[in-house]
Design goal:
Elements (H helix, E strand, L loop, with lengths): L1 H29 L3 H13 L7 H15 L18 H10 L14 E16 L4 E13 L12 E3 L12 E3 L15 E5 L4 E13 L11 E10 L7 E5 L5 E3 L8 E9 L4 E3 L2 E3 L1 E10 L2 H18 L10 H24 L9 H27 L1 H4 L4 H9 L2 H19 L17 H11 L2 H40 L3
Parallel strand pairs: 1-8, 1-9
Antiparallel strand pairs: 1-2, 2-6, 3-5, 4-7, 5-6, 7-13, 10-13, 11-12
Length: 493
């Protein structure tokens, strides 16, 4: 019995000791230190945002470790480590009360957006469609008071994944013709926030822009292509766009275009657009391009000059060889027409006359005139057959004495020799008095000359036309070249 009573006593004592230990543990758990309570509040605050970021998980693990340490150490030696502030925590705190649907300074003064552009390449300048492709880096700067922070002393760099969470200006290209090309690298935007609220937004854009062109001086023309930007939805009451004060537009020195040279560029801040929905702020940059003329000298001007000179070879071919002169004239005319068609093949269908059209039409006119000259020469050369000697002249020739006929034959032979030497024909000695009228001479030639004399006369006239053409055509073409190049090169800068 005494043993049983001892056992019951030990059991009751153990039960009482275990209950007291549990009461002390509950009391210790309810009564935490102020530091632990602050740590718990930080834990709740840091885990409130359900972003699932790795930084938040690390902070939670650190705070949990801090809660476990004070239960094992005395209060006098408890560590007082502080949590470092990270850019992620700063950005997440900013987004707590941020609404990307509203512009900065809502219902206040307009946002001043300063832009700058670095043009990396210009390519695919098309005269037919009047457009060109440009690749540039567009940088925009503005101030957003909602981004001001003091607990971090450096700027925060973000990328395109957070663009849908913040406000950016709605700037678009007014003269854009095609959709932006996708970046092959996958990274084409940059966002940087500064402690004072300044925001830098940089984007890489490859766009197809319209460029209205004037070809009246082609191929010695200059073109002005614009890069025009404007706010789409915000009027000047909300947004004002300006070029940066320094280095607004920079152009890469490695830009090389096969047809043009980039001479200079200018910027304009005052090109606001007025629509029925309001006035929208606008800026533009003008690129001045000058065309290279070397390609067109080789492909159009020099070949056309050679064709014109080739058409003059018919003046040295005898009028009796008609097939050779006809073939040469027709070949040069068709070649000139083909060159004119080729010069217009890569151009839009405009109605005004270009500088190269003036050149090609004048060259074609010289070639056509050479062909017409042969037709006139051939007609005069064969005129004695068409206008035969009249009956009266035949009867008068029969009544002349034989001695006179022999004298006439000698005179005809001498006239033929003179024709071959291209010397002017002299009338008979009896007609050396004042020269009669041309019609009278022609009538007398028909009535008093033999068929041989008339044939020699027309042959001489035909050859004389060829002789004058050899001098007149090159002289006129030289004068045309002097006038053409002096006028158009004075407009070519």
């Amino acid at each position: 019995m005494e043993r049983m009573g001892l056992m019951w006593g030990v059991l009751l004592t153990a039960i009482l000791l275990s209950g007291r230990f549990q009461v002390e543990c509950r009391h210790h758990t309810r009564k935490q230190s102020p530091e632990n309570e602050e740590s718990s509040r930080l834990l709740v605050r840091s885990t409130r945002d359900d972003t699932g970021k790795a930084d938040a998980a690390n902070e939670i693990s650190k705070l949990s470790n801090r809660l476990a340490i004070p239960t094992l150490l005395p209060k006098a030696v408890t560590p007082m480590a502080t949590t470092p502030v990270t850019p992620t925590m700063v950005f997440l705190n900013i987004l707590d009360n941020y609404d990307q649907r509203l512009r900065p300074n809502f219902k206040g003064p307009p946002v001043q957006v300063y832009c700058s552009a670095y043009i990396n390449s210009i390519s695919s300048i098309s005269e037919e469609s009047m457009d060109y492709t440009v690749m540039l880096f567009l940088r925009q700067r503005w101030n957003d008071p909602r981004f001001v922070y003091n607990d971090y002393n450096d700027s925060i760099t973000l990328y395109e994944k957070v663009l849908d969470k913040i406000w950016v200006p709605d700037i678009y290209f007014v003269n854009e013709k095609g959709a932006p090309f996708e970046s092959t690298s996958g990274h084409s935007t940059l966002l940087r926030i500064h402690p004072n609220g300044d925001v830098l937004y940089s984007a890489k854009k490859t766009i197809l822009l319209a460029c209205p062109m004037n070809f009246q001086l082609f191929p010695m023309d200059n073109q002005v292509c614009k890069i025009k930007m404007e706010s789409y939805g915000h009027t000047t009451k909300d947004i004002e766009i300006w070029w940066s004060r320094e280095d607004a537009v920079l152009i890469s020195e490695e830009i090389q275009m096969p047809d043009y040279d980039l001479v200079t560029w200018t910027i304009n801040n005052y090109c606001d657009s007025h629509h029925t929905t309001g006035t929208y702020s606008c800026i533009e940059a003008k690129l001045f391009l000058i065309r290279h003329i070397g390609y067109y000298l080789i492909q159009h001007y020099i070949p056309s000059i050679l064709i014109v000179v080739l058409s003059w070879l018919s003046f040295w071919i005898s009028p009796e060889i008609a097939p050779a002169r006809v073939a040469l004239g027709i070949t040069t005319v068709l070649t000139s027409t083909t060159l004119t068609a080729v010069s217009r093949s890569a151009m839009p269908r405009f109605s005004y006359v270009r500088a190269i059209d003036v050149w090609m039409m004048t060259c074609g006119l010289f070639i056509f005139a050479a062909l017409v000259e042969f037709a006139v020469v051939h007609f005069i050369f064969k005129r004695d057959k068409k206008f035969a000697v009249s009956r009266r002249a035949r009867e008068m020739s029969k009544l002349l004495p034989r001695k006179k006929k022999a004298t006439d034959k000698k005179e005809v032979a001498s006239e033929d020799a003179v024709v071959e030497n291209e010397v002017d024909f002299k009338p008979d000695r009896g007609m050396s008095s004042p020269e009669p009228d041309q019609d009278v001479v022609v009538a007398e030639e028909k009535t008093h000359r033999t068929p041989g004399e008339i044939k020699a006369l027309y042959m001489r006239r035909a050859r004389r036309i060829d002789y004058y053409s050899r001098l007149l055509f090159p002289l006129l073409f030289t004068v045309f070249n002097i006038l053409y190049w002096s006028v158009y090169l004075s407009w070519y800068h």
